[in-house]
Design brief:
The active site is at 127 (proton acceptor). By secondary structure, the protein is an alpha/beta fold. Helix content is 42%, strand content 18%. It folds into 2 domains: 3-138 and 256-301, 3-Layer(aba) Sandwich (Rossmann fold), CATH 3.40.50; 141-253, Phosphofructokinase domain (Rossmann fold, 3-Layer(aba) Sandwich). The structure holds 6-O-phosphono-beta-D-fructofuranose.
């Protein structure tokens, strides 16, 4: 293998740049040229590509976002659009593609594999919802961003004895809300993987008030409902007044944590090795501290499973 390509796709995640850097530099070690594709699959179809030299990925390990830009591109589901992508890569002499993104991005990669083009997926999303890997690039950074925000909200909530609802991203997954809830000591955590019960949330708030807690913080994952909707339910069902804070896209930004940088570096290098070894249609992941590869289809055939033991712990510790 003499030439490979790399792209970032879907919602960006801190650490994507570290993964791009690792791909380029590991490839250099193995004497392979790397082509960077701009704007994900859209750029691939439009032929927006550039050669990435070792120096081009210098000083990006610490930067959030993605140097290659990203896009959501629903048209990539069309067979003729995929054919165009493959034709562009073959014309440029590209023999394999590394896709850095979430499970949605993996579907596009799998379609290319079915058409005979080797692809490897690297999981990168703040949602941590890619089945088959315990962690995705960007999750740890986003988690620390949420913790920092909740800590700050707690300061003012305590001073004014307010009840705050903090709405956290995650699409259909509750990992970000759950881990942040544990780490920031939230009074209640509401995630899509556990049936929602307004009476239970009210009981938790009342229990806190009974033992003299004058402020509270509830974290709600966007996949369950918006913070505003939860505020309305609390008001209507129990007359409880709340303040709502929607953290929004700040959760996708920022300099990646050490953990995300290391994971991204490991994933990037492993992906290059996998392509060179002739693997195709494989996803890279981490399981019990070990970097592994597994069938790409596993990543969207299976449902994302959150850590329910951690949910139990969150409820136990927030009595
Ligand atoms: O998948 C990452 C993510 O940030 C989700 O948490 C969120 O639901 C979604 O992307 C938002 O996407 P967009 O930026 O396209 O609105």
């Amino acid at each position: 293998m003499k030439k490979i390509a790399v792209l970032t796709s879907g919602g960006d995640a801190p650490g994507m740049n570290a993964a791009i850097r690792a791909v380029v530099r590991k490839a250099k070690v193995l004497n392979i040229e790397v082509i960077g594709i701009y704007y994900g699959y859209q750029g691939l179809v439009e032929g927006q590509m550039t050669t990435l030299q070792v120096g081009d990925v210098g000083s990006i390990i610490q930067r959030g976002g993605t140097k290659l830009y990203s896009a959501r591109y629903p048209d990539f589901k069309q067979s003729d659009v995929q054919d165009q992508a493959i034709a562009n890569m073959r014309e440029a002499g590209i023999e394999g593609l590394i896709v850095i993104g979430g499970d949605g991005s993996y579907r596009g990669a799998m379609d290319l594999v079915k058409k005979g083009f080797p692809c490897i997926g690297i999981p990168a999303t703040i949602d941590n919802d890619v089945p088959g890997t315990q962690y995705t690039i960007g999750f740890d950074t986003a988690l620390n961003t949420v913790i920092d925000a909740v800590d700050k909200i707690r300061d003012t909530a305590t001073s004014h004895e307010n009840l705050f609802i903090v709405e956290v991203m995650g699409r259909d997954a509750g990992d970000l809300a759950l881990y942040a809830g544990v780490a920031a000591g939230a009074g209640a955590v509401i995630i899509p993987e556990v049936d929602f019960c307004i009476e239970d949330v009210i009981a938790r708030i009342k229990r806190g008030e009974y033992r003299g807690k004058m402020y509270n913080i509830i974290i709600v994952a966007e996949g369950v409902m918006s913070g505003t909707e939860l505020a309305r339910l609390l008001k209507e069902n129990a007359g409880i007044t709340t303040r709502v804070s929607v953290l929004g896209h700040m959760q996708r930004g920022g300099s990646p944590t050490g953990r995300d940088r290391v994971l991204a570096s490991q994933f990037g290098a492993y992906a290059v090795e996998a392509l060179v070894a002739g693997k195709k249609g494989r996803a890279i992941g981490v399981r019990n501290h070990e970097i592994v590869d597994y069938d790409l289809t596993e990543a969207f055939k299976k449902e994302h499973a959150t850590n329910l033991a951690l949910y139990t712990l969150a409820t136990e510790l927030s009595i």
